[in-house]
Amino acid sequence: MPAAAPTPKAVLHQRFGTNARYTVEEVREAVGGCPGLAPQTRSVYRCALELPGLSVATPGTFVRKKDAEQAAAQIALDKLGIQPIANIPSTPEEAWDELIARISGFFIDEKFLSSTHPLVGHLSVTLRRTGDLIGRIPLSAIAACDVKVNTLCKVIDPKAEFDPLLVLSFMYNAAKQSPGVLVSETNFWIQSQKPYSPEAVDMALKRWSGTSDPVEVEAILVPHVLEDEPKIVRVNLRDNEHYMSYVAEKLTASDSSHVLVSRTIGKASSEIRLYFAAPNVHFVSDISKNVLACHGDGDINCQVNKRASYISGQTIYGDALLANIGYTRRDSELRTEDVNLCTYYRILLGKLPDGNCKMSRDAILAAELPSVYSRFSWKGLSPRDLLCSFCRNQRLSEPLFAVSRVSCGMITSAASSEERGAPAKSIENQQNDDVRTEEETPDSFKCEVKICSRKQETLVEYSAADTWSKESDAIQNSSLKVLIWFNNYFKQLNTKMDKLYLSECTDGFKIHPNIFLQEFAMCLSVYGNTGCNDSGTCSAVGPFSMDTPEKHLESTTTLTNIEGPDSGVFPSHGSLTCISYTASLVMKDKAKKYLLESHNEFEFEIGTGAVGNQLESCVTQLTVNQAACFVAELPPKDLILAAASEFSHDLSNVSRESCLLEFFVKVLQVTEPLEDRMEKALFSPPLSKQRVEFAVQHINELHATTLVDFGCGSGSLLDSLLEHPTTLEKLVGVDISRKGLTRAAKSLHQKLSKKSLVQATVPTAVLYHGSITDFDSRLYGFDIGTCLEVIEHMEEDQASLFGNVVLSSFRPTVLIVSTPNYEYNPILQRSAMPNKDDEADENAGPCKFRNHDHKFEWTRAQFQCWATDLAVKHNYSVEFCGVGGSGEEPGYASQIAVFRRMAHNVEAICLNKDQDQPYELLWEWPNASIPV
């Protein structure tokens, strides 16, 4: 397959290097809004490019920085008349001829010594030698320095991409046929056939000064025996000798020509490679019969190093050395950098589906792969970038994204209604609904993802059931689904089972088990044979579901030493929360404490699983400017060493039983959930306040003395009612969240305490912990019940159950229920601030739910059908109105149903106080103290 042409930036970098200077300017431009709402702006970028003798700039703007830079680079290429061409032979025969010519060119042309090719560094060091050794370098040095040689070997035989030993075989045979070079018959040395001129040698020695002083470099020895742990070794480079000689000493190879080198690992700018000794092999010169054979079944050097092979994606034999040493085009000196255990385990971490998420956020111990994607709150690399990075690290093909447009005609069906996020309608409701025309309802998008091997064999296919109003959202959300699937798969490596099992179809996924397991055989081999429980590994994969388990945050983390006064501003579900934290490994005997990880400002969204369960539990118990400590579950040893850059050597032998992981956390800032921010920005007064005013109006009209708020959460409605003059004498709140009720108790206690000082009478207030779908006789027959923006957080069947229970058993005189109007979402979407990386789409269709925690959002017709059925069934009347907007098409932003009990529906019911009181009394004013 012909290689793809390089990008414009890559072509310029090859020509000009650091002399190509890009200046990106960020500007703001207006985007379309909704009549009556303030105009919005977004960030866009333009780029100027400076080259020696040429300056260009993009005439327009781009929503992504990298697009602006590529556009400027393309303009420069057009002006310079440079056409990027992938100059790679298409047949093995052509590649073989070019490989011979390329190896020969390194030695027969003395002008090569004046180039910036990294191989010149190797040659310059060896030109300091005398006698037969002058200019002699290992063949593997060419493979390490020259990408073109490796590419030619892959064309000759695709297996060469995964086997450095096969590359060495091709190079050895090609070198024998290359004019102007000499190769050893017994070793793997190569050198020029004729001596270099004194002028050429002098030029090379001046250009490449080599190592002037002894240098000690840390490296990691990766044993081929899985039971042996990787360990730090030190390589001493001295006397201007070729560095691979010292690597050979550490590997006990006969000489440096027997040292093989893997491809670079990790970042492209890095020189981190795996070095290993070549096993005993014989070479067949005939290109059609290149065969490598290991001699002797018991030869330890012939054994595959599974860990090293998994890291590099190539076949590594025997013990291997992970080191960062080499020559580059950017530096004439030998480049060295320590590689410690932290580096090694971070490389391993990058192979995991959530590894790059952790590292892109620089929070290995704190960050997790979020369960949902939001353009407005996602932090770190995007799901698409994470998936592409995962596939590259696993040596898979780039993910294939197939985006399809879903026409509005399809959305009118019940099934498509479920796909876009709205609940399916009954046949009767479908007939009564006003079906929008194609012109009124723009199309939406679906995205299918396919993951293939390098051989283009399909491993995993995902077909999204959801549709999205923006093409980019469809891609990002489908990417996240695939990432979560892979993450669940890798986590199943923790569970030992007798046999491998992989379901072929589950939750929109189609798996090809045989190909999948074959592609991940090395992964299973590495993780399946360590015999180390605390590294989270095992020998088999079990069946699993895509359903992400709910995080039980009610069993809160135990906090110690809470510092700072209660500010009243606390993180809630959906809020963006900024914290500072430190994570330290503490010895149980308090003898030592190691700081593993710290962040001065770390932002995440509550409820998305973007941090560990215990950390989120801690944060949601604090208010802004409060801080606390807690002891967390000890993570796997791999994660500890990946985080411990400074202490990785000290911690490598520490026993898990002797230490604890301690977090110190401070809440710095809380930004309200996107839904609340939009409501405050787009509505005056905010929708939440309008809903309170709506409730106050009905309280006073009814002269109500008792009120129960179903799903009171943190008590925002109850708290707000205390600010208004009403006839209420008793306020009751019910919620399933104990933490929310605790916050409500603190807030109400503080406010009622102040009221009691200036008023003779204040309302009685009670908070109950329980489910609003369960009946409790203590709340029977209240004057008014409220359930504001609650039912959409329940499953639809639970919302119906609540409606039946409240009207048949609780039986308030008036019940007020509010919920988002799904038809109003497009207005909010067009008015929301676009993401920097997304283009504004004026024709975008209905957006997704206002909050990722919503289980459904109803249209006006669906809400009215639900409420009308309940009213008829339980002898209530119902009227509809709302708040937010004018009430004209597409209706109010928040739709409201007011149920009124019919006059002849006032008979009492028989109450069993012993059996009908499932709620737990959590707090009561003025009798109880504040819960903790």
Short overview:
Helix content is 31%, strand content 22%. With 932 residues, the protein is α+β, with helices and mostly antiparallel strands. The protein contains 29 helices and 30 strands.
Task: Give a description of the structure.
The chain contains 29 helices and 30 strands. By secondary structure, it is α+β, with helices and mostly antiparallel strands. It is elongated. Mean pLDDT is about 80; it is low at about 35-40, about 285-300, about 410-440, about 495-500, about 530-555 and about 835-845.
Q: Which terms summarize this structure?
A:
932 residues, alpha+beta, eight-stranded mixed sheet, six-stranded antiparallel sheet, 31% helix, small RNA 2'-O-methyltransferase activity, RNA-mediated gene silencing, transferase, RNA-binding
Count of helix runs: 29
Strand order of the largest sheet: 28-29-27-26-23-24-25-30
What characteristic shape results from the CA principal axes? Answer: elongated
Low-confidence runs = 33-38, 283-301, 410-441, 495-500, 529-554, 833-846
- Tell me roughly what share of residues is in helical segments: 25-40%
Average pLDDT figure: 82
Q: Tell me the radius of gyration.
A: 34 Å
Q: Specify the biggest β-sheet.
A: 8 strands, mixed
The total of beta strands comes to 30
Please give the oligomerization state of what you see. single chain
Q: State the end-to-end distance.
A: 66 Å
